[in-house]
């Protein structure tokens, strides 16, 4: 695969793609587009929905973060062992996207007034994932191998801990899941890298 | 297949109808839902829920993809699958804007929404026109097509002229509506009685 990821110099919506590729040891190039470049160039007009990220995979040019993630997941064997697991992975991923969209909305609010309400509601959103991961149901959200959905959840949990360090205190299975995934050698190396640490979560908000 | 339903089921119903997939529908009354028994059994506390054999699935887009896989409506290869995902995600972005306007901003935001709509529809028009097959990707309907079709039907209710400047989309809606099984479904009492959205 000859992969090129084009995105802004932030984690934003593309970070989950980076995390997946890094963990899998898949090589990829990155094109960084600053806000100035985005405003001044014709790139935006050339993007199907006027948005980043873009993934170029050989002669295939893909837009939409989740389409990119699914494409890579299919190629890298991160979509379950059969159709049933694929459906369950999709289900988990959609729910993670719902929480991610709430999180993004909060991050872009002009002040902190929504934070308290958000954190109060957060346990309700985390509970289904805690339940899924508890007991002896295995180390991942679906099946016995890491999937598309796990990468989305791990980075979302990391960012929620930045937002509120104690947010996982009532969720032992999520804590142990996060610890286990972050101990994967490639992820451990990546999360400790300057590359990851110095990239802001969203524009203007340091980690 | 059993479908417990809400407003986010339009596309999956149309897909199942077109693909000749029989299904049983359980419409959950809002008052019953608020009692909480069913809600507590739903993994994310939400509907729709699809039961396929002994297998329960939630999240409307996960259901759509599952049906897509089962009915060969997910492209002929990895490249088409990726493009279908991309188009479906684009449709979902539009659906989210529509739902937001309907539930939160109908009185104040409806006119602005309709005025801005061409800026979103033109992207689908461009893809449809370029593909030339009458579908978004490849030469047969995918779950992205069913999703787009449903969203466009809803928009035509909102504003009956919204596709007048988009000939490929207009023709797409006409052709999809004329597919025999879809036509039967859209003409049925079951379909006509279902409200589009929860708030009328």
Distinctive features:
heterodimer, A: 207 residues, alpha+beta, 10 helices, 8% strand, B: 200 residues, four-stranded mixed β-sheet, 4 strands, globular, Glutathione S-transferase (chain A), transferase (chain A), glutathione transferase activity (chain A), Thioredoxin-like_sf (chain A), Glutathione-S-Trfase_C_sf (chain A)
Task: Give a description of the structure.
The complex is a heterodimer of chains A (207) and B (200). Chain A is α+β, with helices and mostly antiparallel strands. Chain A is built from ten helices and four strands. Chain A has helices spanning 15-23, 35-40, 43-46, 65-76, 83-107, 115-133, 148-163, 172-182, 185-191, 194-197; strands at residues 3-7, 29-32, 54-57, 60-63. Chain A has a four-stranded mixed sheet with strand order 2-1-3-4, with helices on one face. In chain A, α1 packs across α7 (148-163) and α5 runs parallel beside α7. The longest helix of chain A is centred in the middle third of the chain and has 25 residues, at 83-107. The mean pLDDT of chain A is 95. Chain B is of the alpha+beta class. Chain B has a four-stranded mixed sheet, covered by helices on one side. In chain B, α1 crosses α10, α5 (78-104) runs antiparallel to α6 (106-116) and α7 packs across α9 (167-178). The longest helix of chain B is centred in the middle third of the chain and has 27 residues, at 78-104. Chain B is globular.
């Amino acid at each position: 695969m000859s992969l090129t990821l084009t995105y802004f110099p932030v984690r934003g919506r593309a970070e989950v793609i980076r995390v997946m590729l890094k963990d899998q040891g898949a090589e990829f190039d990155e094109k960084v587009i600053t806000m100035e470049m985005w405003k001044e160039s014709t790139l935006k007009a050339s993007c199907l929905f006027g948005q980043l990220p873009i993934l170029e995979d050989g002669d295939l040019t893909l837009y939409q973060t989740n389409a990119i993630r699914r494409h890579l997941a299919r190629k890298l064997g991160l979509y379950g062992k059969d159709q049933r697991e694929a459906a369950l992975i999709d289900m988990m991923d959609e729910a993670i996207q719902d929480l991610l969209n709430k999180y993004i909305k909060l991050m872009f609010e002009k002040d902190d007034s929504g934070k308290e309400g958000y954190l109060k509601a957060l346990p309700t959103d985390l509970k289904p994932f805690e339940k899924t991961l508890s007991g002896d149901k295995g180390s991942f959200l679906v099946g016995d191998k890491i999937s598309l959905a796990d990468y989305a959840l791990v980075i979302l949990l990391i960012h929620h801990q930045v937002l509120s360090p104690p947010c996982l205190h009532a969720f032992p299975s999520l804590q142990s899941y996060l610890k286990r995934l972050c101990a994967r050698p490639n992820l451990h190396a990546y999360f400790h890298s300057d590359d990851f640490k110095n990239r802001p979560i969203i524009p203007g908000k340091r980690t | 297949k059993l479908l417990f339903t809400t407003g986010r089921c339009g596309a999956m119903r149309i897909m199942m109808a077109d693909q000749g997939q029989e299904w049983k529908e359980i419409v959950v009354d809002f008052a019953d839902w608020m009692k909480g028994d069913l809600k507590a059994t739903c993994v994310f506390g939400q509907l729709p829920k699809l039961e396929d054999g002994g297998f329960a699935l939630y999240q409307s887009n996960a259901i759509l993809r599952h049906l897509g896989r089962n009915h060969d409506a997910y492209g002929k290869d990895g490249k088409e699958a990726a493009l279908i995902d991309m188009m479906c995600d684009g449709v979902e972005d539009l659906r989210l804007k529509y739902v937001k306007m309907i539930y939160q901003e109908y009185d104040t935001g409806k006119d602005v929404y309709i005025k801005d709509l061409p800026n979103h529809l033109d992207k689908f028009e461009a893809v449809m026109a370029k593909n030339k097959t009458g579908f978004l990707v490849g030469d047969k309907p995918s779950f992205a097509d069913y999703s787009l079709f449903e969203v466009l039907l809803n928009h035509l209710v909102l504003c009956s002229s919204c596709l007048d400047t988009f000939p490929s989309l207009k023709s797409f809606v006409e052709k999809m509506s004329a597919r025999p099984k879809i036509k039967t479904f859209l003409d049925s009492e079951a379909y006509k009685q279902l409200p589009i959205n929860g708030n009328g």
